[in-house]
Structure formats: structure tokens, C-alpha cells
Design goal:
L-leucine transmembrane transporter activity; ABC transporter involved in vitamin B12 uptake, BtuC; globular; 4% strand; mainly alpha
């Protein structure tokens, strides 16, 4: 039972990172029905901006978060305006292929500029201490980094819910998601709303990138590929296009993955994750929180 609870704690930490990445996927998809496959590579950029801020600018980790969020938000807006906006009225396949192209550009550009060396955040970047606790009479270990990851994820989720429900920008996002043409007729600037959505999603990816770099203590230019794909799986599991679905899917996937690693084999966790995606699409394509819509033709 102690090992089981420990795997749950580890799964919540990993799932929190997946949930942050999945939020970016689901926000963009909910607005313009696009799977932004470059999202995982924006995570990589955020991880490196944080690393450079800590190592070369000698800033603390919180200022590193701020610079990474600002840089990746700007990058997300630039990508949307250059790569996706000209294809707004094109077939979805064209935008999807463009997203893959942007992803490859960021990955190979990262390899050219940053090299292939694996880097690590300096020791002491964050005070990571093991905290022995007792849960239901069972002793387990929680680290301060795990607590920070979970707390940051919950705080961002609450912040996003506030934005979506109570701010003008959030109301504009919901209107554009429901009917972009009607929103435009009501005076909403659809292009600016989509840019804000990309900026927010990219900011969450930046936070996830730094947390992932601290969690595994390694960063490299291709680090965003697998977490990006798994976060997409998490978004589908929870119900892509639904913000609570991204959180539920992220936590569920993180726990599922750590259970597979702990009780079976770490080599099997990636194949089993994508097998889970296939099963979800076969059994409940709309995801755990999604609802199937019937379309009359």
C-alpha cells in the first residue's frame, strides 16, 4: 500500500505537467479547431529560456518563470500570426501540416542553435527537500518540488477559469469558440482573441517546460516531443476542447503512466499510453468529460 500511494503522488506530479501542456492544446482546439503540434516544442523553448536566465543571467527560478512565460507568449503569438492566420479559411489539413512544419522548424532550429548536449538546471535552483509524511497511517515521501508542481498547476487552473468566466477576454474566447462569425458581427476582434488564446496556451507550456526540466533534471532540444504527444493524449482522454477535461486527462494519464512503470515496466509506459489513446477513441471518442454531438445533414 505504501508503494501504491507513492506511485499516486508521483503520478499527480507528472500528471500536473501533462495537464499544463494539455491546457494549451485544448484552448487552441476549442477556439479554432486546430491541433497545434508545435505546442510541445514551445515547452522546450520555455525550458531553455528558464535555464539561460538561471545560468547566465543569474536570476532566481521565479524570475526565470517570468522570462520564460513572456518569451513563449510572444513566440506563440508570432507563430499564430505568421503560420496559422493566413490559413484561417483554408482546409483543416493545410493548418495541420503547417503545425507539423512549425514543430520541425523549432526542433531542428533548437538543435542548430543549442546543440545536442543534455543540460541540467544548476543544483540548488530550487530547494527540493524530501518530506516524510503519513497518509492514512502509511508513511510516504513527498518532495517540495512535487508540492510546488501541484500547487502551480492548481493555481494556473483557477486563474484560467477566472479569465474564461469573468473577464472580457474570456467571454470573447467563449463567443469565438461558439460561433466566430456571430462574434465578429457583435464587434469582437476575432484575430486578437485567437492571439490571446495562443499567448495563454504558450505561457502554460513555458511553465510546464521549466517544471519538466526541474523534475527530470535534464533539458535538450527534442525534449518537447514525447511530453507534447502525451499531453495531446491527455487532452483527448479528458475531452479535447474542455478545460476541466485537460486537467482530468493530465492527472489520469500521469497516474496511469507511473502505475505502469511501477508495477510492470518503464519500457512499456509509452506504448501503453498510446494504446490507451486508441481505446478511448474507440470506446468514448468525446473523452471522459466530453459529450457526443449529433449533426444533421
Amino acid at each position: 500500500m505504501a508503494a501504491f500511494l507513492q506511485q499516486i503522488i508521483n503520478g499527480l506530479s507528472l500528471g500536473s505537467i501533462y495537464a499544463l501542456i494539455a491546457l494549451g492544446y485544448t484552448m487552441v482546439y476549442g477556439i479554432i479547431q486546430l491541433i497545434n503540434f508545435a505546442h510541445g516544442d514551445i515547452l522546450m523553448v520555455g525550458a531553455y529560456v528558464g535555464f539561460l536566465a538561471v545560468v547566465y543571467l543569474k536570476l532566481n527560478i521565479w524570475w526565470a518563470f517570468f522570462l520564460a512565460v513572456a518569451s513563449c507568449s510572444l513566440l506563440g503569438v508570432i507563430i499564430e500570426r505568421i503560420a496559422y492566420r493566413p490559413l484561417r479559411n483554408a482546409p483543416r489539413l493545410a493548418a495541420l501540416i503547417t503545425a507539423i512544419g512549425v514543430s520541425l522548424l523549432l526542433e531542428n532550429g533548437g538543435l542548430m542553435v543549442l546543440g545536442t548536449d543534455i543540460r541540467s538546471y544548476p543544483a540548488g535552483t530550487i530547494n527540493n527537500v524530501q518530506l516524510p509524511i503519513t497518509l492514512m497511517g502509511i508513511p510516504i515521501t513527498v518532495t517540495t518540488l512535487q508540492i510546488i508542481i501541484l500547487a502551480v498547476t492548481i493555481a494556473i487552473m483557477l486563474f484560467l477559469q477566472y479569465i474564461v468566466r469573468y473577464t472580457w477576454a474570456g467571454k470573447a474566447m467563449r463567443a469565438v469558440s461558439y460561433d466566430s462569425d456571430a462574434a465578429r458581427l457583435m464587434g469582437i476582434n476575432v484575430d486578437n482573441t485567437i492571439s490571446v488564446t495562443f499567448a495563454l496556451g504558450s505561457a502554460f507550456a513555458a511553465v510546464a517546460g521549466i517544471l519538466l526540466g526541474l523534475y527530470y533534471n535534464t533539458i535538450q532540444p527534442l525534449m518537447g516531443i514525447m511530453p507534447g504527444l502525451k499531453a495531446f493524449v491527455a487532452a483527448v482522454i479528458g475531452g479535447i476542447g474542455l478545460i476541466p477535461g485537460a486537467m482530468v486527462g493530465g492527472f489520469a494519464l500521469g497516474i496511469f503512466e507511473t502505475m505502469v512503470s511501477g508495477y510492470w515496466s518503464s519500457k512499456m509506459r509509452d506504448p501503453i499510453v498510446f494504446l490507451l489513446l486508441i481505446l478511448i477513441l474507440l470506446i468514448k471518442p468525446a473523452g471522459l468529460l466530453g459529450k457526443s454531438n449529433t449533426e444533421k445533414v
